[in-house]
Amino acid sequence: MVGLKEELLKSIWHAFTALDLDRSGKVSKEHLKVLSHNLCTVLNVPHDPVALEEHFRDDDEGPVSNHGYMPYLNKFILEKVQGNFDKVEFNRMCWTLCAKKNLSKSPLLLSDEDAFKVWVIFNFLSEDKYPLIIVPEEIEYLLKKITEAMGAGWQQEQFNHYKIALNTSREGLSAWELIDLIGSGQFSKGMDRQTVSMAINEVFNELILDVLKQGYMLKKGHKRKNWMERWFVLKPNIISYYVSEDLKDKKGDIILDGNCCVEALPDKDGKKCLFLIKCLDKTFEISASDKKKKQEWIQAIQTTVNLLRAGSPPPHKEARQKRKELRQKLLAEQEELDRQMKELQAANENKQKELETVRKQLEAAAARAAEEEKKRLQTQVELQDRFSLELEREKMVRQKMEQQVAQKSSELEQYLQRVRELEEMYKQLEEALEDEKQARQDEETVRKLQARLLEEETAKRAELEKWHLQQQQTIQMTEAEKQELENQRMMKEQALQVAMQQLKQLELERKEALEQYEEVKKKLETAANNTKSWKDKVAHHEGLIRLIEPGSKNPHLITNWGPAAFTEAELEERQRSWKGKKATSE
């Protein structure tokens, strides 16, 4: 009943949408009453005027619209439909209400009856959603059926072009657009109007009237046993036979069920192409016009019985259901694919956003790295410049120090040369002193003085040797030690200057002492001549001697050979000791 209700609603929808609207934009109550009354009449449903008046009472709660009409239609009309009505008559009533308003005025190859049949076929093949349309797949199916019924070849390529153009603009066609398409002759070129009408009628009989097969055959009577030509019409559960194909004089029915069977019979009694239909209560002998017709009828009847046994619907309805299920499956798969695509697109957008964020972070990091690299390079350049300046400065300092070291080394070499010369002179001085010591034996004071001078000179020589050793060690010192030695040398030079000042003072004192010892000089003239040569050398190198002699802050006595090695008190003490020894010896 659900399928029947859906088929009825499609035709009613066409009739309802064709009704005129009032000024408020709603269908008037009178039109709905007329529609309801007509529906009840053609569907054999008892009419209830009271329920109709109650449903459409004159107040704000009475919905005079399609949404308000549907509850009444379902409750009081469609739910009471039993199926004992003429489908063609029902569809013709709905067609009468909507055709005049919607049918194209342009000339078509179709008659009004053919247009009506195409409209009914549209309701059968259209989708179960409103507004009603027929999808391209069902359009192709219908056009193929009509083309086959006309005995023409199907133009698949032409339809593919039409399908592509249709898909780009809309999902499908309305009933009136389908009538215009078939009536335009676009897919039936070369066929006359009668051929197209016969093809539409054949498809209408199959799809709407459930006519599986029809044609003339001979039937054997049950009482008179004579053979009469009849027009047979095979439907899913019955075979009806008429006097002629106009279906006006019906002669009987053969009720089919799962217990029926069909068998081929051999030729007999001058009749050929015989077959037998066995039912529970009767058996029917039928003769086809030829073997091909016989085989077609046997196969069609057997297929119908098999469908009854399996409880399956007619082939065209089963095929329509399969096509719908396939489209629904494809639509579900497409919706799922669209959903997945949206999810993938959303995920892709999220990934793009994440990548964009990461890219920005990388760009920021790269910018920071570039800035840091720039700073590092700038710092490196500055450090290199600074190191270059410091290296240049150190190089100049090193060159200066090397020059100073070379100068100090040269000075040290000169100093050592002078020390060697002094040592040589010292040896010669010792020889001269030995000669002078021999000459001074007559004068004890002079001898003592000479001895003191020798002791003093010995001490100086020891000190000079000590300084000589220190100078040799100084040569092996590092640059820091050389600097310290230089400082010591400067101190010694300062001390030498002080000693030279003292020497000048001693020179004065020596001059006085020379005057006092003038007599002694005369006695020692011979010794003086012997020591004249080394005295000149000593006078020539007096500066060197002073260089290595430490000065004294106390006044010293001066001899002919320089400052004395003892003080005046010591000299007096030694003179007394010498005089005492001399007195004792006398």
How do the strands and helices of this protein lay out in sequence?
Layout: H1 2-17, H2 29-42, H3 49-55, H4 66-76, H5 87-102, H6 112-125, H7 136-150, H8 156-169, H9 175-183, H10 193-207, E1 213-220, E2 227-235, E3 238-242, E4 250-255, E5 261-265, E6 274-278, E7 283-287, H11 291-310, H12 315-439, H13 444-475, H14 479-516, H15 518-523, H16 525-530, H17 532-540, H18 542-548, E8 558-559, E9 562-563, H19 568-585
Antiparallel strand pairs: 1-2, 1-7, 2-3, 3-4, 5-6, 6-7, 8-9
GO molecular function: calcium ion binding; DNA binding
Main location: membrane
Subcellular location: Cell membrane; Cell projection, Lamellipodium; Cytoplasm; Nucleus
What does it look like?
- The chain is α+β, with helices and mostly antiparallel strands.
- Among the domains are: 1-209, no CATH class; 213-313, Pleckstrin-homology domain (PH domain)/Phosphotyrosine-binding domain (PTB) (PH-domain like, Roll), CATH 2.30.29; 423-447.
- 67% of the residues lie in helices and 8% in strands.
- It has 19 helices and 9 strands.
- The protein has helices at 2-17, 29-42, 49-55, 66-76, 87-102, 112-125, 136-150, 156-169, 175-183, 193-207, 291-310, 315-439, 444-475, 479-516, 518-523, 525-530, 532-540, 542-548, 568-585, and strands at 213-220, 227-235, 238-242, 250-255, 261-265, 274-278, 283-287, 558-559, 562-563.
- The strands form 2 sheets. A 7-stranded antiparallel sheet has the order 4-3-2-1-7-6-5, covered by helices on one side. Strands 8-9 form a two-stranded antiparallel ribbon.
- Strand 1 (213-220) and strand 2 (227-235) form a beta hairpin.
- Helix 6 (112-125) crosses helix 9 (175-183).
- It is rod-shaped and about 220 Å long.
- The model is unreliable at 59-67 and 543-549 (pLDDT under 50).
- The SWAP complex consists of NPM1, NCL, PARP1 and SWAP70.
- This is Switch-associated protein 70.
- Keywords: Cell membrane, Cell projection, Coiled coil, Cytoplasm, DNA-binding, Membrane, Nucleus, Phosphoprotein.
- Residues 316-537 form a coiled coil.
